[in-house]
């Protein structure tokens, strides 16, 4: 019997080539798109969970409560890890973790720039990173020890085994002994580093880390299996009271634990509580995958139901000779599964071909996990779900037909069935319009971000790290650069010009409430800061070598002026970190952090002598290439042991919003796919409708009907359905995109034209799809149409 079902299904597939092609192609594209999304989602969900004891690993977070606001970050005191381990029996291991930065490693004549950080001695005991040589106990237990990756070991020593015990030079200043070699971290690891240094070395090098009032590095820990995280959280909440002298009635820091496995997906916090992050994109694309499968399945249901009259006589004959309804259901479900199987095979081939481009787009290393049973189980599940969803209604509908009515020729599609088919078309286009609106809004927001005036000119602005000799000999370096062709001005800034995380409440001014604690962002800069960044002064002046007292003076932004309460801030006293001075200039507010957060109060101090942060070089328009060659020559001459490195501030800005760019591209891609699949179904329905009304069209043409009137006749019913879809989709899209835009402090306003554009696109695409078949039917020779009469 199964063989007979298969034979009948294959014959029907071959006999109705157009119908079969549309169905298989639609299902294949829907499956391929969904499979790509599932691979991406699976990869996103796996980040931070690759460690053997991932369920016991936590990050210590801070809620800083001051000035009526709660700010959450991972900047903890440098001495926190050891103290927590001493005070909390629930904690098995704890380690500090500095930010990952690029440094120069060298062995004799070999020089290479690698990413590294300082970590506590428990690091390899906490994180199950495979060690190729050395042990977790001895890898980082001495100040002169360094652990390097396989890549670094092969770069300098040819193999991990040969590296053990060898000496490697750090930033051309300090020699370290290789105590361990670890396996290269996977690309989807939450942390990315090539070498690790001892934490106590970091505390000794940066004395400010040993003070409870200062925060900066992160703290990681591993709880014991029997420990209750909630009880640990309750004790952590007040842990800093009595240790941090800044904590008072108006300023408080509460510590809490965030699971390591949640850190990547749930990175956003609002008012001290978790408020999404990458998980929002994961949820979004899961919904998109479901949408695409639904649209493809609806195509199958619609076309199969529409063609029911063609196969009604077959069903009537089968029932008349004794076929049971169940056997007919199995037959039609078998046809659906056969099409789904063909579509799945094509989908897997399409995904395999598309993965290299998809990986380049998303910056991932996805592949088809054909060696994993779970993958084949997923494909089987996809086949079953798609086959059942797309084949269930046609099978139930066809098997319910009355053989008497069918063989008498009196079969008519009921109003309920027609309403169901129209509802499916509306549903398809609701989903498609939602995705079009999403594409338009995401694209506009991204354009807004990329073109927004940040308050400074990021064009032709080069960022050179102040490392090695050029940091220590900044004044000579600056003078050399200013003599080079194409260089307009030079300055330096302690923090990243696009990401300033330095905050402090060590600010005093006359009239300040002594119990009030306000966090101010701060940074140190060199002369010509305003000129190089092309900032706008709303009052006062920039720092100048003509004023010796500027070494203790300050620049502030408008947000700071407002917070201080000065009507005319210029010349007013200000004390920062117990260093009294005056405000010499007020800067128009500019963005020194992500556009996801509002502009905060900023205090800028002068530090001209040394530059260990970022050296900013403004080049003259049209002379950047020439200037870069000159800058490189000066760097190689003054800093020969450090490979030349630079970046454009504008390019760094684009990279900062890479996630949004990827989401925009993927949304556009999958929205286009949804529209294409929906239109495939519409094309099939239009073709079938035209075929059903062939004789009616022939009669109308004989009676003088024009091509235009016939096209209108065949198109108007479909266009009504698209119109209904627009009405339903618009409020849904407005709500969804409003929620997404809430994640930005600076955002576009949703406008009616965005929904109008999406509606016009849906109408236009649908009209083109329908018109092709309508015009073809209208141009048919009526003699051929009526020949059988």
Attribute tags:
789 residues; 6-stranded mixed beta barrel; alpha+beta; 25 helices; single chain; 50% helix; 3 domains; 8-stranded mixed β-sheet
Describe the structure.
The protein has 789 residues and is α+β, with helices and mostly antiparallel strands. It folds into 3 domains: 2-43 and 280-448 and 658-785, no CATH class; 54-263, no CATH class; 461-655, no CATH class. 50% of the residues lie in helices and 18% in strands. It has 25 helices and 26 strands. Strands 17, 18, 19, 20, 21, 22, 23 and 24 form an 8-stranded mixed sheet that branches. It has a 6-stranded mixed barrel with strand order 4-5-10-7-9-8. Its main location: membrane.
Helices and strands in order:
Blueprint: H1 2-15, H2 17-46, E1 57-66, E2 69-73, H3 80-87, E3 91-97, E4 101-107, E5 110-119, H4 123-126, E6 131-133, E7 145-149, H5 150-157, H6 160-163, E8 167-170, E9 174-182, E10 195-198, H7 199-205, E11 218-223, H8 229-236, E12 251-259, E13 269-270, E14 273-274, H9 278-306, H10 308-320, H11 325-362, H12 373-399, H13 403-408, H14 415-451, E15 461-465, H15 469-472, H16 474-482, E16 487-493, E17 503-504, E18 507-508, E19 520-525, H17 529-533, E20 537-540, E21 554-557, H18 558-564, E22 573-576, E23 579-587, E24 602-606, E25 614-619, H19 624-638, E26 647-648, H20 649-656, H21 658-692, H22 694-702, H23 707-741, H24 752-778, H25 782-785
Parallel strand pairs: 5-10, 7-9, 19-24, 21-23
Antiparallel strand pairs: 1-2, 1-11, 1-12, 3-11, 4-5, 4-8, 6-9, 7-10, 8-9, 13-14, 15-25, 15-26, 16-25, 17-19, 18-22, 20-23, 21-24, 22-23
Helix pairs in contact: 1-11, 2-9, 2-11, 2-21, 9-12, 9-14, 9-21, 10-12, 11-12, 14-21, 14-23, 14-24, 21-24, 23-24
């Amino acid at each position: 019997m199964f063989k007979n079902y298969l034979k009948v299904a294959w014959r029907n597939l071959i006999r109705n080539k157009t119908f079969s092609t549309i169905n298989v192609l639609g299902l294949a594209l829907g499956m391929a798109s969904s499979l790509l999304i599932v691979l991406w989602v699976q990869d996103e969900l796996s980040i931070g969970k690759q460690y053997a004891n991932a369920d016991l690993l936590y990050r210590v977070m801070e809620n800083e409560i001051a000035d009526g606001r709660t700010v959450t970050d991972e900047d903890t005191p440098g001495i926190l890890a050891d103290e927590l381990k001493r005070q909390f029996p629930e904690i098995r291991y704890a380690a500090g973790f500095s930010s990952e930065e690029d440094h120069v490693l060298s062995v004799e004549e070999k020089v290479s720039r690698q990413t590294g950080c300082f970590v506590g001695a428990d690091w390899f005991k906490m994180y199950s990173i495979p060690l190729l040589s050395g042990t977790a106990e001895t890898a980082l237990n001495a100040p002169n020890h360094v652990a390097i990756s396989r890549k670094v070991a092969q770069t300098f020593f040819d193999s991990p085994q040969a590296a053990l015990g060898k000496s490697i030079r750090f930033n051309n200043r300090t020699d370290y002994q290789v105590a361990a070699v670890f396996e290269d971290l996977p690309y989807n690891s939450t942390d990315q580093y090539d070498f690790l240094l001892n934490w106590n070395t970091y505390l000794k090098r940066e004395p400010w880390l040993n003070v409870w009032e200062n925060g900066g590095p992160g703290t990681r820990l591993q709880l014991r299996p029997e420990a209750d995280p909630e009880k640990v959280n309750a004790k952590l909440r007040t842990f800093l009271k009595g240790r941090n002298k800044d904590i008072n009635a108006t300023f408080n820091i509460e510590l809490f634990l965030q699971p390591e496995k949640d850190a990547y997906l749930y990175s956003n916090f609002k008012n001290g509580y978790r408020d999404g992050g990458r998980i929002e994109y994961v949820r979004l694309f899961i919904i998109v995958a479901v949408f695409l499968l639904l649209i493809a399945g609806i195509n199958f249901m619609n076309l199969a139901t529409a063609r029911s009259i063609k196969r009604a006589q077959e069903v009537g004959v089968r029932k008349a000779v004794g076929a049971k309804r169940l056997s007919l259901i199995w037959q039609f479900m078998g046809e659906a599964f056969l099409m789904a199987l063909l579509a799945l095979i094509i989908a897997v081939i399409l995904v395999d071909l598309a993965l290299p481009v998809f990986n380049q787009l998303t910056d991932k290393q996805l592949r088809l996990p054909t060696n994993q049973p779970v993958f084949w189980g997923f494909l089987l599940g996809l086949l079953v779900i798609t086959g059942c969803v797309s084949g269930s209604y046609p099978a139930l509908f066809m098997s319910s037909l009355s053989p008497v009515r069918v063989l008498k020729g009196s079969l008519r599609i009921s109003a309920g069935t027609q309403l169901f088919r129209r509802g499916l078309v509306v549903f398809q286009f609701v989903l498609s319009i939602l995705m079009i609106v999403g594409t338009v809004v995401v694209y506009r927001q991204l354009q807004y971000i990329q073109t927004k005036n940040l308050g400074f000119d990021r064009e032709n602005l080069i960022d050179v790290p102040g490392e090695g000799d050029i940091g220590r000999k900044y004044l000579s370096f600056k003078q050399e650069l200013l003599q080079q062709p194409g260089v307009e001005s030079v300055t330096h800034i302690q923090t990243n010009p696009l990401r300033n995380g330095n905050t402090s409440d060590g600010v005093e001014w006359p009239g300040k409430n002594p119990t009030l604690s306000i966090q101010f962002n701060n940074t140190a800069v060199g002369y010509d800061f305003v000129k190089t960044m092309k900032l706008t002064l709303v009052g006062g002046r920039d720092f100048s070598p003509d004023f010796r007292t500027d070494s203790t003076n300050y620049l502030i932004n408008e947000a700071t002026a407002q917070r201080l309460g000065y009507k005319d801030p210029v010349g007013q006293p200000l004390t920062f970190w117990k260093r009294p001075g005056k405000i010499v200039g007020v800067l128009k507010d500019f963005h020194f952090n992500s556009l996801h957060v509002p502009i905060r109060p900023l205090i800028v101090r002068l530090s001209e002598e040394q530059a260990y942060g970022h050296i900013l070089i403004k080049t003259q328009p049209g002379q950047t290439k020439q200037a870069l060659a000159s800058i490189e020559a000066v760097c190689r001459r003054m800093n020969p042991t450090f490979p030349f490195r630079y970046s454009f501030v504008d390019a760094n800005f684009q990279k900062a919003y890479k996630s949004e760019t990827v989401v925009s591209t993927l949304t556009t891609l999958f929205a286009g796919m949804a529209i294409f699949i929906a239109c495939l179904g519409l094309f099939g329905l239009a073709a079938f409708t035209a075929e059903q009304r062939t004789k009616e069209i022939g009669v109308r043409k004989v009676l003088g009907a024009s091509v235009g009137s016939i096209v209108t006749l065949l198109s108007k019913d479909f266009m009504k359905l698209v119109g209904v879809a627009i009405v339903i989709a618009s409020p849904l899209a407005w709500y969804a995109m409003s929620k997404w835009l809430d994640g930005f402090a600076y955002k576009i306003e949703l406008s009616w034209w965005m929904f109008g554009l999406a509606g016009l696109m849906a109408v236009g695409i649908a009209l083109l799809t329908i018109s092709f078949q309508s015009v073809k039917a209208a141009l048919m020779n009526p003699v051929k149409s009526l020949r059988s009469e």
